[in-house]
Design a protein that fits this description.
The protein has 94 residues and is α+β, with helices and mostly antiparallel strands. The chain has one domain: Alpha-Beta Plaits (2-Layer Sandwich), CATH 3.30.70. 30% of the residues lie in helices and 32% in strands. It has a 4-stranded antiparallel sheet. The longest helix is centred in the middle third of the chain and has 10 residues. The protein is globular. The termini are far apart. This is AsnC family protein.
Amino acid sequence: MITAIVMISAEADRIPEAAQTIADIEGVAEVYSCAGDVDLVAIVRVPAHEDLADLIPARIGKVPGVRDTDTHIAFRSYSRADTETAFDIGVDGD
């Protein structure tokens, strides 16, 4: 599974609607509104790199109110949940 973080600049008065529309697109796992240089951050998970080419410019980029996107492809996850799960493999809690 390919994970990408998509930074999205949107028209200020369309942020809530754009965020919900993006969240409803297949392949988009989460969308966050945020402060800073971008208005929205979307976490995208797709089976192949080619799917990103369809999803981001053809779907997310065409949502009304979206002005620009900047995509970052993730190489590895270093979350606490992933680390804890790795140590649980093969361990019986009885």
